[in-house]
Amino acid sequence: MPEPSDALLAVRAAEGDEGAFEVLVRRHSAQLLRLATRLLGSRTDAEDAVQDAFVSAWRRMPEFRGDAAFATWMYRIVTNRCLNLLRARRPTQDLGSVPEPSAPEHASSPVRAAESTAAVEALMRAMDGLTPEQRACWVLRELHALPYEEIAAVVGISHQAVRGRVFRARRYLTEAMGAWR
């Protein structure tokens, strides 16, 4: 028997079916956590943001009309939560709180591992120079491969504004990472 669609589960959840909502949470939490971690740079903050987003979504399920896919709706809630946190933050971020990605292919070469770590740290510092809105658009486009139209729906701005923010973010990051080319 095929698994129920997100749309069906969302309708059931809107009617108060906790089990249907739990399936949606399990189905989308990993992807939303990756998004929040990339936006916030902190796994702990990301976990809190995603948890808050799901609590908010549960409370607002009766308002969900299905105009957009459930995943898009959740992307928007998580992105907005992350943007609010980024705006409230101090301008600088402790890079020690950013989880270092594992790179097993570099395990045999300490020099390559050090270079990779340094490049990731440089990218994180460069991303701190982006506005929260540019960062959100860039992460959704470059790391989550969402189309511009979906990013516009998630962030709540026009398609052209998304293109502009992604363009400015790319230009800024290209300049900031010039030494790594």
Automatic annotation (TrEMBL):
InterPro entries: RNA_pol_sigma-70-like, RNA_pol_sigma-70_dom, RNA_pol_sigma70_r2, RNA_pol_sigma70_r4_t2, RNA_pol_sigma_r2, RNA_pol_sigma_r3/r4-like, WH-like_DNA-bd_sf
Pfam families reported in the protein's UniProt record: Sigma70_r2, Sigma70_r4_2
Top-level taxonomic group: Bacteria
Repeat recorded as keyword: no
Keywords per UniProt: DNA-binding, Sigma factor, Transcription, Transcription regulation
Start and end residues of each RNA polymerase sigma factor 70 region 4 type domain: 121-172
Segments forming domain RNA polymerase sigma-70 region: 24-90
Keyword Nucleotide-binding attributed: no
Coiled coil stretches, renumbered: none
PANTHER family given in the database record: RNA POLYMERASE ECF-TYPE SIGMA FACTO (PTHR43133), RNA POLYMERASE SIGMA FACTOR HI_1459-RELATED (PTHR43133:SF8)
Family: Belongs to the sigma-70 factor family. ECF subfamily.
NCBIfam families: sigma70-ECF
Protein's recorded name: Sigma-70 family RNA polymerase sigma factor
Originating organism: Streptomyces chrestomyceticus
